[in-house]
Amino acid sequence: MASNDTDLTTRPSVAVHAPGSTAAGAETTTAPVMQLRDVSVYYGSYEAVRGTSMPIQQNQVTAMIGPSGCGKSTVLRALNRMNDPIPGARVSGDVLYHGQDLYARDVDPIQVRRRIGMVFQKPNPFPKSIYDNVAYGLRINGIKGRLDDHVEAALTQAALWDEVKDKLRKSALALSGGQQQRLCIARTIAVKPEVILMDEPCSALDPIATAKIEDLMFELTNDYTIVIVTHNMQQAARVSHYTAFFTAEVDDKQVRHGRLVEFSQTGKLFTNPADKRTEDYITGRFG
Amino acid sequence: MTLTNKSPASPSTLTRRGSSAVGDRVFSWWTLGTGLLVLAVLGLILITTVREAWPALDAMGLRFLTERTWDPNPATGDAVFGALSFAYGTAISSLIALLFAVPISIGIALFLTELAPRRLRAPAVTVIDLLAAVPSVVFGLWGILVVAPALVPVYQWCHDVLGGVPVLGNLFGPVVSGRNYMTAGLILAIMVTPIITSITREVFSTVPRADKDAALALGATRWEMIRGAVFPHSFGGVVGAVMLGLGRAMGETIAVALVIGGSTNITANLFAPGNSMAAVIVQQFGESTGTFTAALIGLGVVLFAMTVLINVLAQTVVRRAEARMKGSVA
């Protein structure tokens, strides 16, 4: 796959992937951007999540819901190899990105995370200026052209530009929680990933800030594919096209594992779930 | 609506309970007292040393700071006490020490916090801390007996290769012996490395996982993550660690006295023998009387003032740099 634009083994000299260069862009409805095939995640000998298979569709929002400890965040972090730095973390099965296994031996996790970015639960801007927060990713990825323009574009796309354009040199930590989270989104989209993973991005925010982020997610699906983990079922119902419901199961040996119970279109999952456990969860009978 | 309407007992439960109030007051007096004690000790040291040094300071005036000659027993005329040569020696040897110790310490600390496998960390930390436990006189003896002679050929080589370079060559002048500014600086570097390492390691380990994750999620390599997430977070703490190391280097007495060469001069040549303030004090205090003793104590005052000045300066630098790096908060 050496000449393919989805090749993840080497750092490209020009980091921005040109619009339209992604072959999969033309086949939005057919081939998923990512595909999980029988993915299990282990911490040491403990199997945290067992046998997950699901697609991630292009330019759609895919939500992962479920009770605490069901492994939804673990699966999310497996999608861009963010579990790698955790000692003992291991993934089995295939995590395919445009058909390429992200855990193949010659895949560079740095390249994976360039294309599959992540926004975290707690807003975590760097202790730097607003400008430098966005510019950081651009700089390390050697993005050419005027940095200022890229920074403005990213902040604009994250619906933050108007609020911060007069204080770009001020500390990012002086922003409100919701602004910080949008800054983190700006920072992520500045490096033009194809997929954005969001790990409960609104759990630390108030309802108004949450609404802004949700609107933003809708806008972002024009250019990006989004996978969101959320505790909030209403949020999943509002923002996502597809929903995966996870739960925690105790096996014969009394060990808890996270499992994917049901994956389908969001409307269907919430109105007509196929599995009894999904129904119990979304109707509030458990979790 | 008042509280009494809801519950008749509430007014009494809101009053301060006796025991907790006393405990609070004792605690606040105790902490205030210990805090003031430090200031008082510092002030007393300053006052008494200045008083003891006064005969020499009075006789020399400002020349005590600007004069490079130190002659307690001249053949004719009055004794001359100038601190400048020794202040220079203190500054140069400490600077050399930091030049070597800071990059090495930061490297070790980064290795221990970011790279080293978990089971290697504890033993490595122990070994480094052991280095801090070696008495300074042992470092001094090791320096004079082993390091100094062993380094002479190295110095000679540096002089031969770099001595001819314009400007820079002045630093690498002729080698008289292994006992010189450079050797003193290197020994000091070994002595301050454990301090700087152990504090920077603590500082690095306080960088939130979330910040590192943020950098990694943007496609940062480990080094880019360190530059983007670890350094901005720990800049102030690292400067603090370096300042503690510098304080130790400037104040180090016996090890420097043994290896710096013991000569009174100011030269750019790092391979020339010199002397430092702390070393002069320990070498000459036993044989001194009267104004001579006062002059030696005066060196102590200058050393004290230099240390305080550098620390204040460092704090200003840190504040400015952090404001620039992190963006102003206001």
From TrEMBL, chain A:
Protein name, as recorded: Phosphate ABC transporter ATP-binding protein
PANTHER family, alphabetized: ABC TRANSPORTER I FAMILY MEMBER 17 (PTHR43423:SF1)
Species, as recorded: Micromonospora radicis
Record keywords: ATP-binding, Hydrolase, Nucleotide-binding, Translocase, Transport
Gene3D superfamilies: P-loop containing nucleotide triphosphate hydrolases (3.40.50.300)
GO biological process: phosphate ion transmembrane transport
Residue ranges, compositional bias (Polar residues): 1-12
CDD domains in alphabetical order: ABC_PstB_phosphate_transporter
Keyword Ligase: no
Alphabetized PROSITE patterns for the sequence: ABC_TRANSPORTER_1, ABC_TRANSPORTER_2
DNA-binding listed as a keyword: no
Top EC group: hydrolase
Residue ranges of every copy of the ABC transporter domain listed in the record: 34-273
EC number(s) stated in the UniProt entry for this protein: 3.6.3.27
SUPFAM superfamilies in the cross-refs: P-loop containing nucleoside triphosphate hydrolases
GO CC annotations on file: membrane
